[in-house]
Structure prediction request, 353 residues.
Amino acid sequence: MPRYRIATIPGDGIGVDVTVEAVKVLNAVLPDIAWTEFDWSCEQYLRTGAMMPEDGPRQLADFDAILLGAVGFPGVADHISLWGLLIPLRRAFGQYVNLRPVRLLPGTESALRGRTADDLDILIVRENSEGEYSAIGGTHNPGRPDEFVVQESIFTRTGCERIIRYAFEQARGRDRKLCSATKSNGLIHSMPYWDSIFERIAAEYPEVETRQMHVDALAAEIVLHPDRLDVIVGSNLFGDILSDLAAAVTGGLGLAPSGNINPARDAPSMFEAVHGSAPDIAGRGIADPVAQILAGAMMLAHLGESAAAAAVDRAVCDVLAEGAVRTPDLGGTATTAELGTAIAERAAALVTR
Ligand code: NAI
Ligand code: MG
Prediction:
């Protein structure tokens, strides 16, 4: 009997290239995983008119976790790929936390001058189930001069409380500093509400030092003073934008992992790179697999396999630090598969079973 049953959805573009490498690395540290692949993608959409079958969530419900590549490809509108697969899965499985650790990895260079690994170690906790990403709204009077669109945001008490509390718990286990992203000067209903819940929950965690910053100023803070930041909590939209920014100022999108977490553990959590399907480099064997491999390590940690997770993390750091095998985004000439294999071999040597 395999210890874990994991579903993979490689998806589109480089999602396919990097998922193969993550599976290779995880097999090297934990041989008793049973993998089941689902070919849900934009290609499937063009063939069948749906990104996944109607009972897609039910097909995945009994797996221990899901490893997702990326979805999106030219010819299929991005809102179709996102709302046809990623968002329904996040919501069906109660994955209300999107966890995005951003670190400067050894042997890689920050886009910021003079910054070292000590300065850049941030955990972004993004709300993953409501907020600005809502389907409520519509286009009115289409095609007429008085045409207009409405896009609503949803901030529920339950949704705000649980994500903010989760962020405080994370901060308590790290440097005990939590910054909340707001924009209460512009969004005069949702953000003051978010802020009031943040302040109320902050009172339960006196040991955590808190700040509330407007998201624009916080974006600048990530660039100018990343060393002052530890955990950041933000709404769905703010967390999304800040994590791409934070990933870009560290080693780039090719290195940033994420987890869609169901903290109640009553449905599978889903792990993926922050980056998308990168059609500009897809199929050329040059995508950096590190983000997806680190997403795999987050999955192992979530499953309680902390030794295996640590071995993968350490293998990534060692191989990057040595610098002999690097993909083009890091200034090297190695292929996706060569870097994946180097990390898999190192991880296998490090793991203590
Ligand atoms: P992207 O993240 O796919 O690419 C942005 C840039 O970063 C590109 O120049 C790409 O070549 C580079 N890049 C990304 N990952 C890389 C890696 N592992 N190694 C080397 N270079 C890498 O974002 P973009 O171009 O905005 O979106 C492309 C498609 O991906 C769209 O259809 C979008 O909707 C979709 N997407 C899907 C996501 C998901 O499935 N979770 C998340 C973000 C975008
Ligand atoms: Mg994003």
User: Anything to note?
Assistant: Residues 240, 244 surround magnesium ion (ligand 2) (CB under 6 Å). The chain has two domains: 1-96+256-352, 110-250. The radius of gyration is 20 Å. The longest strand covers residues 4-11.
